[in-house]
Amino acid sequence: MISHNKNELTVAWPDGFSHRFHPLWLRERSFEESNKDATTGHRVVEVASLPVDLALEEARERNGSVQLAFSDGHRCSYRLDDLRNEAKHLLPDDLVGAKHLWDATLENWPRHEASALIEDDRALLAMTDDLARLGFALIGGLGTGGDDLARLTGRIGPLRATNWGTIADVKNIAEAYDDLSMTGRALEPHVDNPYRLPGPGYIFLHCLESTAQGGESFIVDGFHVARRVQARDPDSFDTLTRTQVGFHYADADAILDHCGPLIELGPDGGLHRVRFHNRAEQVPAYSPEQLTAYYEARRIMAEEVWSPDNTLRFSLKPGEAYVVDNYRLFHGRTEIRLATGNRHLRQCYMDRDMVSSRQKILRRALNVTNKDY
Ligand SMILES: [Fe+2]
Q1: Which contiguous run of DSSP H or E holds residue 349?
Q2: Burial class of residue 219, CB neighbours in 10 A (0-12, 13-18, 19+)
Q3: Residue 265's closest CA among 305, 310, 223?
Q4: In what side-by-side order are the strands of the sheet with 245-250?
Q5: What is the mean pLDDT of the chain?
Q6: What are residue 253's phi and psi, to 5 degrees?
Q7: Model's pTM, two decimal places?
Q8: Which helix (H) or strand (E) holds 109?
Q9: Rounded to 5 degrees, what are φ and ψ at 59?
Q10: pLDDT grade, residue 214 (50/70/90)?
Q11: CA 274 / ligand 1 centre spacing (Å)
């Protein structure tokens, strides 16, 4: 199962997976107290000063672990399961879990009850797992009090404060609005606030009142959209990953500008983030050739974003809420007929690291170790 020479350790698992480890990597990760503080796990040795040509002198397998000795005299051991996880997950997880891309045919929508989320860690972990897998979760039974949303978000982590505060009212009114979301206008599929840095990671939307006609909610899996664009026209997909697009917001108190591609790839080449925000998009004055390619690519993406085949629709009732991954999903609503009644939502944002942290803390507390997904 293991073999080594002075320049590498090779571990081969029974399922055929194998990986080669560098001696210095094994040395600098060592959990021995001479290398890392026992309380914090922070390294206390300046690893850049260790010899680059450090040799691996011994490697012995014992009881699911491998014991190592190095040419500088250091000794340490690793569980083979831990080495496997390191080899399989070269980059840090955002949320832990494989993504399931979906379209309008999605069955078994991720529904959760607020009382369970607030009282039961396993229920809360299941919700964060749904966010990892599907990018959204629907929540019922939250109540219609102004503080009910905070009871839920307080179970996960601190909110992201913006110039609009933390939990903001989205009341639909005919005049004196700062943002079109506060009118009765339909909102096309979009991510929230791509003009912020960093962009809001997750959106929580809670319905307190809904007596007006219209205002049906809808969501679209932006990662599925991206893959559809790639399948239809690989050149357009490349254009959308390479073209930096500006997004802009301004009111009396804030001027916000940021940019990014409509489809952003991560360092591993996988889908990392999507952007689509018709109201705020301001593509730079690139050359006509660049813009012709961009406009054609954006048109194809928009067809997929708007396609009923890719869209889930639902009407949010008082006491219901939903959470969306703002780096992955587009959300929107149909027109609200203001003359027919009221619609009052509250919404807030949470940074990505807080949601990810809560999931990992819950996994640790509940001893969930199926990281090898
Ligand atoms: Fe929004």
Answers
A1: strand 343-350
A2: buried
A3: 223
A4: 255-260, 245-250, 281-282
A5: 94
A6: -115, -15
A7: 0.90
A8: none
A9: -150, 115
A10: confident
A11: 14
